[in-house]
Amino acid sequence: MQQPAIRAVLLDFGGVIAEEGFRNGLAFLAEHHGKDPDQVLAQAMDAVYSSGYVTGTGSEADFWRRLGELSGLWVEPLEGENAILSRFRLRSEMLEWVHRLRRTGFLVGLLTDQTDWLGRLDQRDGFLAAFDRVYNSYRLGKGKRDPTLFHDVATDLNLPPERILLVDDSQANGDRARAGGFQVLTTDDPDRIQRALKALVREAGGTAK
Question: The whole model's pTM is what?
Answer without folding.
Answer: 0.94
